[in-house]
Write a structure and sequence with these properties.
single chain; 0% strand; 3 helices; flat
């Protein structure tokens, strides 16, 4: 349970930083995402998911 809370807290910190430090950049990125076709969005989502899995695997390998 503590690992889940750590992961959620980390995500909230990163998300909060984006909103606090670069809100206009976030809006431009959302506009860009709206203009992409659905297939490209699916590929980006899959890439993000695989990257996250690799980072979690690496954290466990390093002894988290």
């Amino acid at each position: 349970m503590s690992l889940v809370l750590l992961a959620l807290g980390s995500v909230l910190i990163v998300e909060g930083l984006v909103y606090a430090l670069a809100p206009s950049f976030l809006e431009r990125m959302l506009e860009l995402l709206r203009s992409l076709p659905e297939g490209a969005l699916r590929q980006l989502g899959a890439l993000a998911m695989v990257s996250g899995l690799l980072l979690v695997w690496l954290a466990f390998q390093l002894g988290l």
